[in-house]
């Protein structure tokens, strides 16, 4: 239990010590260091006693005094100061198992790492956690904890996740809830598996924990066109999506009355499949599940309309081209119509792109690829001097699409620059050429 030291930041408190690269950080103030969580938590102090193991196996102690929360300055070979933990499950609904070839390499790695969850907001199944890991989470007061629950029925959870320990790992959920941790839960809803009475049972169990569980997202399973050899799953249709929403609504009403928050939220996609009106933005509270596609459409609309309401309008001639997925087409069309009311000479073409790469059942904008956009948006149909894309089509660094096409390659093949938008206000600015 130690962290390999691969470098020291110049000018940092650690640079004043004679710590050789290639040695190992063993402990800080007597606490063992396993990874970046331990390192960040225990090195936040002002005064520290470090134990370092040298390459010859001997140990040396160092004392450090610094400002509280100042970075100590020890670097390790990896971001986590440890290996990433790969997923041990074989979930019937795993999206990665349905990926086609030809995507960037990182897409094919299945992580189920609580540390990445804490740092980046991803969801974990708990099957990778030991009691020691849970002890650390509780001791460090790591929060929020994002958990993929899917069902609270142990046997069903084992079958859905292809892991005989998946049911037993639910004990970590209850222990974390009892510790006072702030928990967000996710349910990937699979038709004929964990819907109907199973969904009702899961929501009953989770809402009983609402002193700790602050949000529950219910998301319909995403099914690509690449499911050869996988468990046969039926996509949700209008009727089955409405049945799921009808189960969820009483729990929302109960939670709103009891806790002042609806807590349980169907994803936007579930409402759209059901052909039901999406709730207004003010019904989503703090938007804790926005990354799960919960409230994203309503928030985007609200941001756009708020920004547009502040505009005086003009008669300047403009042309703009907005790319979106099929799910958002009607919403984007409606927002562009609103622009026309204040900016009558602003002409916007909305290019709704069908997802041939993953399959037509995948309709969200964030899973569009450069391949499909380039195939369906012809250069001669573009009236503006740039292509406006959702920021989510590019990875976090903003340089590469899911299908491994770089931003520069896309712009060269399209013959136009990209302009991305993160929110509704960004989209308005992009259309108006700001």
Describe the structure.
With 434 residues, this protein is an alpha/beta fold. Helices cover 31% and strands 17% of the residues. It contains 13 helices and 15 strands. The protein has helices at residues 36-42, 114-120, 131-140, 154-161, 170-178, 196-207, 238-259, 268-274, 296-309, 329-342, 370-376, 407-414, 424-432, and strands at residues 3-4, 7-8, 24-28, 31-32, 47-53, 59-65, 74-75, 145-148, 183-189, 213-220, 264-266, 318-325, 346-353, 387-390, 418-421. Helix 9 runs parallel beside helix 10. The longest helix has 22 residues, at 238-259. The radius of gyration is 25 Å and the shape is globular. The model has no long low-confidence stretch (mean pLDDT 93).
Brief overview, please?
By secondary structure, this protein is α/β, with parallel strands linked by helices. 31% of the residues lie in helices and 17% in strands.
Question: In angstroms, what is the radius of gyration?
Answer: 25 Å
Global mean pLDDT: 93
Query: Proportion of β residues?
Result: 15-25%
The largest sheet, given as strand count, sense and whether it forms a barrel, is: 5 strands, antiparallel
CATH topology term of the largest domain = pyruvate-formate lyase- activating enzyme
Distance between the termini: 53 Å
Can you tell me the overall shape? globular
Q: Secondary-structure element sequence?
A: EEEEHEEEHHEHHEHEHEHHEHEHEHEH
In CATH terms, what is the architecture of the largest domain? Answer: Alpha-Beta Horseshoe
Total discrete domains: 3
By CATH reckoning, the class of the largest domain would read: Alpha Beta
Structural class: alpha/beta
CATH-assigned homologous superfamily of the largest domain: pyruvate-formate lyase- activating enzyme
Residues in helices, as a percent range: 25-40%
Low-confidence stretches: none
Q: What is the total tally of β strands? A: 15
What oligomeric state do these chains adopt? single chain
């Amino acid at each position: 239990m130690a962290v390999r030291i691969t470098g020291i930041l110049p000018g940092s408190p650690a640079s004043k010590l004679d710590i050789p690269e290639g040695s190992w950080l063993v402990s800080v103030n007597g606490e063992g260091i396993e990874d970046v969580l331990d390192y960040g938590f225990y090195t936040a102090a002002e005064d520290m006693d470090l134990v370092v193991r040298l390459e010859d196996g001997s140990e040396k102690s160092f004392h450090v005094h610094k400002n509280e929360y100042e970075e100590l300055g020890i670097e390790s070979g990896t971001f986590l100061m440890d290996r990433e933990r790969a997923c041990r499950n074989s979930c019937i609904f795993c999206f990665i198992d349905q990926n086609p070839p030809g995507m960037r390499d990182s897409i094919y790695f299945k992580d189920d790492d609580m540390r990445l969850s804490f740092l980046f907001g991803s969801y974990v199944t708990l099957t990778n956690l030991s009691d020691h890991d849970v002890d650390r989470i509780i001791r460090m007061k790591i929060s929020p904890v994002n958990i993929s629950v899917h069902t609270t029925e142990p046997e069903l959870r084992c079958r859905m996740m292809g892991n005989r320990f998946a049911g037993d790992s639910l004990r970590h959920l209850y222990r974390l809830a009892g510790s006072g941790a702030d928990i967000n839960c996710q349910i990937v809803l699979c038709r004929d598996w964990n819907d109907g009475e199973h969904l009702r049972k899961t929501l009953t169990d989770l809402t009983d924990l609402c002193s700790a569980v602050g949000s529950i997202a219910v998301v319909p399973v995403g099914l690509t066109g690449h499911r050869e050899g996988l468990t046969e799953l039926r996509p949700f249709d209008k009727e089955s999506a409405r049945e799921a929403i009808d189960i969820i609504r009483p729990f929302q009403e109960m939670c709103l009355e009891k806790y002042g928050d609806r807590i349980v939220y169907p994803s936007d996609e579930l409402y759209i499949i059901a052909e039901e009106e999406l709730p207004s933005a003010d019904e989503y509270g703090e938007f804790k599940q926005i990354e799960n596609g919960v409230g994203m459409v309503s928030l985007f609309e609200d941001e756009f309309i708020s920004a547009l309401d502040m505009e005086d309008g003009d008669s300047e001639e403009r042309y703009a081209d907005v790319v979106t997925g099929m799910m958002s087409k009607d919403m984007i069309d409606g927002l562009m119509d609103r622009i026309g009311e204040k900016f009558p000479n602003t002409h916007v073409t909305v290019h709704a792109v069908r997802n041939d790469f993953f399959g037509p059942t995948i309709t969200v904008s964030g899973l569009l690829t450069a391949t499909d956009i380039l195939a369906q948006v012809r250069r001669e149909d573009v009236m503006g001097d740039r292509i406006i894309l959702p920021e989510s089509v590019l990875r976090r660094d903003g340089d590469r699409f899911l299908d491994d096409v770089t931003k520069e390659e896309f712009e060269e093949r399209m013959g136009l620059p990209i302009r991305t938008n993160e929110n509704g206000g960004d989209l308005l600015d992009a259309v108006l050429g700001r």
